Fold this sequence. Notes:
221 residues, alpha/beta, 15% strand, Rossmann fold, two-stranded antiparallel ribbon, 2 domains
Amino acid sequence: MNSIRNIFFDVGNTLLFPDWERMLEPLHRRGVRPVPEQLAKWERLSKNEFDGVEHDGRQDHGFWFMFYKNLLGELGISDGGLHHQLVETIRISGNWRRIRPGTREILQELAKQYGVAVISNADGKIADVLGVCGIADCFQTITDSGIVGHEKPHPVIFQEALRSMKAEAAESLYVGDVYSVDYTGATNAGMQAVVFDVCGAYKDKGVPRVAALGELLEMLG
Length: 221
């Protein structure tokens, strides 16, 4: 990687992870509880399916539309109303509140050498959620699509975040979990990028990837 001065992070599936008890509550009410292996399987498959199609501008909505369509198909459930309920749960920032041990400590370590910030497709409340999870103060700026008015991969949200940090794109790294939204959006904005790939969707993609923040720390040396 070229010289990096600033690191920008996605939030969902990068810093914070789904509270599946909340997000799958419409399924749980029916006595259906998908196992973690099913969720990981359909995250992998849906990400690759999503990356291969044109999008309508509601990026997270489009991915999760595919994810829940595929999951319900595996479960043998055909119910448009239930599908809609599940998709809507992902738009609520408060449903993303699971944090991996050591996240705060690694962010603090990175902040010793880099400017650290957030760019997230969210509902205007992601700063509050990061605060509840105890890491909001790790970031110099937090750029939320619900406030900016544009979602990744639109260049405006990346440009707004770069301005907030007084950062040069070429000297900035973006870390996010969806190739066509995060990696492509960032690189199209002139930034460097790494895919945060916990589920292993991009093992064969040939792009820089990590599965944990500790791996990112090692990659940066």
